[in-house]
């Protein structure tokens, strides 16, 4: 899927699937990208992937024509600028709590006159070979996703979604549960109530609303869609490996005396 098609799907609230990449070796990204995910997301916020490793992951994903959206450690331009210039197809911004924070992020992601992104030359611009094409199409084609992960953000959701540069919202269930005083309890009524408020605001604003499913299976996907989610991040390399190792341990225990 090309990047403008991903943006179109998010804006039309069509079903979209992605997956987290949290380990740095690009082979993992190649495996995921070769299996028809609509996009890959790089987890730099909770992982140890650095900027150079992120560029390799982006390139591996794009080789299969799968857009790649990193999630930086913070809202700092020290992370956002080099990630975008490395060729990322957009950004997933963590912990967006207010409309003001969102506007500041748009300034970092979009070129003038929409934002204030610095003009430079690196991999994204073909090392100068297609600078003009890139900078003139970026604002229209790039994907920008904001994560809602706190009680404050839920309370501000109508103002946050009132931004024409926002393509989708993604709920962070673990941080949201912690903010609501029930850490780790993703299915607590308080968490579900907050999720529904965000989902309804996204529907009203005409943008996609997503979540992540650590246990990705037909039942969990069906439940998410019935809630009103329109894009789903299908687990991660970390959870896939942990699930396999857990299963292998049980097999070994069955043969040990």
Automatic annotation (TrEMBL):
Which key words are in the record? Lyase, Metal-binding
Care to name a GO molecular-function term for this sequence?
A: metal ion binding
Keyword Lyase assigned: yes
UniProt keyword Lyase present? yes
Q: Cellular component GO terms, alphabetically?
A: cytoplasm
All copies of domain HpcH/HpaI aldolase/citrate lyase, residue ranges: 18-238
Q: What is any Pfam family matched here?
A: HpcH_HpaI
> Would you identify the family this protein belongs to, as annotated?
Belongs to the HpcH/HpaI aldolase family.
This one is known as: Unannotated protein
């Amino acid at each position: 899927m090309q990047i403008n098609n991903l943006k179109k799907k998010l804006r039309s609230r069509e079903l979209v699937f992605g997956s987290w990449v949290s380990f740095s070796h690009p082979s993992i990204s190649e495996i995921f990208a070769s299996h028809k995910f609509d996009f890959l997301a790089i987890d730099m916020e909770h992982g140890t992937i650095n900027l150079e490793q992120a560029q390799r992951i982006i390139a591996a994903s794009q080789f299969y024509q799968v857009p790649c959206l990193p999630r930086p450690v913070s809202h700092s331009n020290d992370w956002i600028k080099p990630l975008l210039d490395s060729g990322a197809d957009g950004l997933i911004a963590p912990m967006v709590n207010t409309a003001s924070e969102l506007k500041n992020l748009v300034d970092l992601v979009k070129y003038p006159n929409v934002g204030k992104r610095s003009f430079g030359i690196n991999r994204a611009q073909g090392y100068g070979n297609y600078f003009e094409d890139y900078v003139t199409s970026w604002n229209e084609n790039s994907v920008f996703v904001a994560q809602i992960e706190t009680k404050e953000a839920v309370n501000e959701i109508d103002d946050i979604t009132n931004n024409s540069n926002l393509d989708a919202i993604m709920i962070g269930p673990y941080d949201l549960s912690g903010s609501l005083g029930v850490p780790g309890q993703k299915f607590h009524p308080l968490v579900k109530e907050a999720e529904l408020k965000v989902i309804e605001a996204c529907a009203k604003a005409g943008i996609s609303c997503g979540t992540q499913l650590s246990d990705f299976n037909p039942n969990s996907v069906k439940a998410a869609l019935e809630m009103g989610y329109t894009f789903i991040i299908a687990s991660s390399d970390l959870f896939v490996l942990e699930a396999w190792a857990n299963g292998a341990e049980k097999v070994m225990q069955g043969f040990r005396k």
